[in-house]
Amino acid sequence: MTKERTFRDFELDPRLIEAVTALGFEAPTPIQAEAIPVLMAGKDVIGRARTGSGKTAAFGLPMIHRVLQTKGRGAGVRGLVLAPTRELAIQVADALMDYAKGLGLVILPIYGGAPYAPQLERYVVASILSWEPPAVSSIIWIVARWT
Known about the structure:
Blueprint: H1 14-22, H2 30-40, H3 55-70, E1 79-82, H4 86-99, E2 107-110, H5 116-123, E3 128-131, H6 133-146
Parallel strand pairs: 1-3, 2-3
Helix pairs in contact: 2-3, 3-4
């Protein structure tokens, strides 16, 4: 009989373990159990799983862990998630904010269909962006005009 994995097995920052425990996560889902160790080793992953299977935590927890490891080593964005829709960009950012609650990270969704100025004001302090691709080209164009 094999031992059921826990989030502690992944050697995530202890504050992330506390966060997922507080959120009610008991054991990693299959996508998390497969992806987190690979991502923690610094390798790339392409994963596919059903809605609600824990994909955001599967990539988000290792990303937050790495950002925490580099915190204070220069300002700026250290994590980027590209989401295909505005709704998913917001949903991913919200989930990442839940995982990183109280850790001093700024996680920001950037998306089209809303004024960019308020989004860009927070960009300069963001640690992780959840970005909708159509907004990427618009923001790059805006930033290029400012510089």
